[in-house]
From TrEMBL:
Keywords: Mitochondrion, Ribonucleoprotein, Ribosomal protein, Transit peptide
SUPFAM superfamilies: NTF2-like
Name assigned to this protein: Large ribosomal subunit protein mL45
Location of the protein in the cell: Mitochondrion
Compositional bias segments (type: Basic and acidic residues): 308-319
Length: 319
């Protein structure tokens, strides 16, 4: 705060308060900041008495711990005390994106093991997967990819069975909020008949990723599992009309299911988080040929029984 010896002069944008002392009249400038609420009383006559109403000398142990001060009884006899902030707990059970989305090989409509081997043999991706698995084992010492692969198939089946049965309470145990929103988006006012028949190939983990959110305490892991299964799907509208699929026709389905788990949560479980559906195999153009000319058929004078019956019917119709 700067003191200057000058007469009292009102200046635009400033408020001068003259102070009388031994050296004469001094001016104290209070600059008003735009957007800041001035909580000073307009009457400065009894400001010293108003200052004494609130004890500003708060012990250090109560500065950051208001609840402790209330528990110890320090803040009971102080008036006009306010809690000027509002604290709300933020819980992030899952992420809303697929981190480093796995790109399936082009035109993979069926099982192509060579393309999967090529993906695993890539040095960069292979190193990322191994590093992510090593970090996951720092949270779960008994984690094993070979043990997780059949568990992933069970989670996949139970999540779709809950969706077909419209059991939303159980669906939250097998699917994250991100996946549940996508699953329920197109299933409203529809009846779904879904059945899992068999797994044509054992499930296989093709990618492992681990990432953190803004806070270092939220650590998530995402595993992409390749599933080649045989399923039956039939979807009916609210009037009972079949709009997709069939209940008697089984189809081979190739999907890449993404499973996520919050590793920082002690009671977290693996849940279905999303799907990556590869593009269908490009169908080759069918070859065309010129149809051969058929030799003209010779008319025979022999009449069969069917021809005779047709001729009699025509005669009866004309008569």
């Amino acid at each position: 705060m700067a003191f200057r010896l000058l007469p009292f002069q009102p200046v635009l944008g400033h408020m001068h308060c003259p102070v009388r002392g031994i050296l004469g009249a001094a001016s104290v400038e209070y600059q008003q900041v735009r957007g800041f609420l001035n909580n000073k009383h307009r009457e400065r006559k009894f400001r010293n008495l108003r200052r004494m109403k609130i004890d500003s000398k708060v012990p250090l142990k109560y500065m950051d711990n208001y609840q402790r001060g209330v528990r110890d009884g320090y803040f009971q006899n102080i008036r006009n005390i306010k809690k000027l902030w509002r604290e709300r707990e933020v819980f992030t059970p899952c992420s809303n994106v697929l981190i480093d989305e796995f790109v399936p090989p082009e035109n993979q409509g069926r099982a192509i093991t060579e393309e999967i081997k090529k993906k695993w043999n890539d040095v960069g991706q292979f190193g990322k997967d191994k590093l992510a698995v090593r970090k996951i084992r720092t949270y779960e010492s008994e984690f094993n990819l070979k043990v997780f692969q059949p568990e992933a198939l069970e989670i996949y089946i139970k999540a779709h069975e809950c969706l077909a049965a419209n059991d939303l309470d159980k669906l939250s145990d097998y699917a994250t909020e991100h996946a549940r929103l996508a699953m329920l988006l197109n299933s409203s006012k529809r009846t779904i008949h879904w059945k899992f028949l068999q797994a044509l190939e054992p499930p296989k983990v093709v990618q492992v990723r681990l990432f953190q959110l803004e806070s270092q305490s939220d650590v998530f892991a995402q595993l992409t599992v390749r599933l080649l299964t045989q399923q039956v799907l039939a979807v009916y509208d609210r009037f009972g009309r079949l709009i997709y699929g069939s209940e008697i026709l089984a189809k081979d389905v190739l999907e890449y299911a993404v499973f996520e788990k919050q590793l920082s949560n002690e009671y977290g479980t693996w849940k279905l988080h999303g799907k990556i559906i590869p593009s269908d195999r490009i169908r080759m153009a069918e070859q065309t040929f010129v149809a051969p000319r058929e030799p003209p058929q010779e008319s025979s004078s022999v009449m069969t029984e069917s021809d005779a019956n047709i001729k009699e019917e025509k005669v009866v119709a004309t008569s």
